[in-house]
Amino acid sequence: MADLFDGIVMAEQRFHGEGYQEGLAEGSHAGMDEGRRHGALHGARMGSEIGCYLGFALTWHCLLQKCTDPKNSKKLRALDSLIGMIQKFPYEDPTYDKLQEDLEKIRGKFKQECI
């Protein structure tokens, strides 16, 4: 008779443990999916933003090269700097620890060029 009650008590603990493991596995899977979607969305936004900056810089660089105004040399150097920063940006390395810092520098340089 004692074994019967032990089985009932132990079944509750066993089911609790199995439920925990199943919930942990399902939650981990759902978290990975959500993280993947979040990363793809924000990565696409960042890529679009940087692509816009590069298009701006390359277009103005091309236009200013055709002008003979001596003031353009300073503007061209600044555009070269922006283009260089964008080309060095680590697109392929999401674990790069200074990703946000470098992106802020690019944004600042772009704002400097627009003024």
Order of helices and strands: HHH
Amino-to-carboxy terminus distance:
87 Å
**Roughly what fraction of the amino acids lie in strands?**
under 5%
Would you tell me the structural class of the helices and strands?
Answer: mainly alpha
Question: How would you describe what is shown here?
Answer:
The protein is mainly alpha-helical. It is 85% helix and 0% strand. The chain contains 3 helices and no strands. It has helices at residues 2-66, 72-88, 99-114. α1 runs antiparallel to α2 and α2 runs antiparallel to α3. The radius of gyration is 28 Å and the shape is rod-shaped. The termini are far apart.
Entry keywords:
115 residues, mainly alpha, 3 helices, 85% helix
Short description:
This protein is mainly α.
List the helices and strands and how they pair.
Blueprint: H1 2-66, H2 72-88, H3 99-114
Helix pairs in contact: 1-2, 2-3
